[in-house]
Task: structure prediction
Amino acid sequence: MSLSSTPRTRLHRLRERAGTDRAQLHAILDAGLICHLGVIVDGSPMVVPTLYGRSGDTMYLHGSTGSRSLHAGGEVCVTVTHLDGLVLARSVFHHSANYRSAMIYGVPRLVEDPDEHLAALRDLTEHLVPGQWDATRRPNRKELAATTVLALSLDESSVKVRQGPPSDEEEDYALPTWAGVLPLAVSWGEPVPDPRLAPGLEVPEHIARRL
Amino acid sequence: MSLSSTPRTRLHRLRERAGTDRAQLHAILDAGLICHLGVIVDGSPMVVPTLYGRSGDTMYLHGSTGSRSLHAGGEVCVTVTHLDGLVLARSVFHHSANYRSAMIYGVPRLVEDPDEHLAALRDLTEHLVPGQWDATRRPNRKELAATTVLALSLDESSVKVRQGPPSDEEEDYALPTWAGVLPLAVSWGEPVPDPRLAPGLEVPEHIARRL
Result:
């Protein structure tokens, strides 16, 4: 039932991969909204959910300049997971999950160049809702100074995917037990306007397109 | 925009908490399907998505006896996150996410007692679909021997929650910019029967109830 050991697991360094694998990695990252950032703080692992952006083969993470997880230093592991369904088998042992997952390992680089810093915040914002960067007030000097951005290369990354029906023991297929997949999907609800929204403001088109 | 720093963040040891906090922790775990398990392998962090179960104030994780993440040793951090919505503010800086998240720290205990081992696998199975333990073939001796189960106490854990509208700078409320929340939810699709399902088997009631 572990997500980490399936027949379709693939684990490669990106630079050794064909274009299809790179496209699959990008697709998994682009379809996700949050990642789980793993760092070592005072010798202990710490796993923090956080938003992210991507530009080419670079992933951007950001947060407060006071964030422990962003300033842990050293290597990180960032994981993005889409849970696509529960796999119900005829035996307890072969229960599993259908999913798409990407893991990225590396030592992130602190983004110090002002242009890259701003561009990374644009990538992070556009990752949430394309068009949102142009629709909102951009960060001022004080806000920029309060925001740490880390860049993480996708060079060392892996993609793991499980899809399809359960794989039961041959002799179990005769059991009178229902087996199959319960699909799961993330869906958008109706936008909830801020109670302090200025009168007459409708949901703009770029947001409506996201839903 | 980081999930790790919101005004409503709470961070406590469970044993110092009131019953409401404990109930909230349990509710977050019970509503989730996968966690992200953070371990240290060869000095590097590793974050692996995996299924889990809960019994009282113990969380159970399991996997193959060959799993690197389950046999890393030492402290772990397990994080369960529900992404409830994107928070679109009038300024880039105040974009955020609504979420419920639980983080559990500790040194897991290898479950060696056969009764607890079996009970933990029941908890893991029932966590997916209540009723599924009685509906499926239970693990045989060989399968049990191939399955490692770890028990992790919920004693040291934290709950972080952000809900509600964006918090913009006072002067930004006058901007003609749409702001609010785009809700997100996980939903079940129609069950997909195994292509090799024995004829005449309908989706049983305990599974239909889960959807």
